[in-house]
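Milestone 3.1: sequence recovery, worked example.
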């Protein structure tokens, strides 16, 4: 059984934290959900929201992480996972296996997703393109 001091109880309400820039991508906004602090850096959970129209996307990359899950809460996003286009819509859940090469190249103006990753200080590594990537849909 885990010790009571290994993690802390956390309860974050929408008014407790706000969406901010300064995360991994400048075209997204991030809302910290307090999980990294509560778990001593074992896990991070944040909401990610579209902030600007997709132009170049995230580029091809992979994460050095033990676990990563994306739960689309609003809108949609199109990813390349290896050489496959994957449309992720509100309600969809994606488990990104460790090291999978991917590229988020298109998303709706209302896109928002919950991302949970372990460890909290995971690294992102740029990789060579796996294949050609479709163009994003222009926002109106």
């Amino acid at each position: 059984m885990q010790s009571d001091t290994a993690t802390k109880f956390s309860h974050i309400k929408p008014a407790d934290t706000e969406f901010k820039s300064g995360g991994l991508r400048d075209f997204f906004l991030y809302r910290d959900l307090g999980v990294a602090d509560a778990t001593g850096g074992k896990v991070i959970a944040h909401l990610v929201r579209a902030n600007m129209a997709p132009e170049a996307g995230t580029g091809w990359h992979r994460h050095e992480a033990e676990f990563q899950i994306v739960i689309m809460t609003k809108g949609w996003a199109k990813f390349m996972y290896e050489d496959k286009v994957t449309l992720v819509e509100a309600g969809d859940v994606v488990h990104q296996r460790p090291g999978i090469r991917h590229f988020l190249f298109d998303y709706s103006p209302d896109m928002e997703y919950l991302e949970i990753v372990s460890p909290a200080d995971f690294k992102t590594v740029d990789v060579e393109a796996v294949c050609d990537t479709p163009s994003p849909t222009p926002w109106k």
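The two ends are 53 Å apart (CA to CA). Residues 30 and 48 are 5 Å apart (CA to CA).
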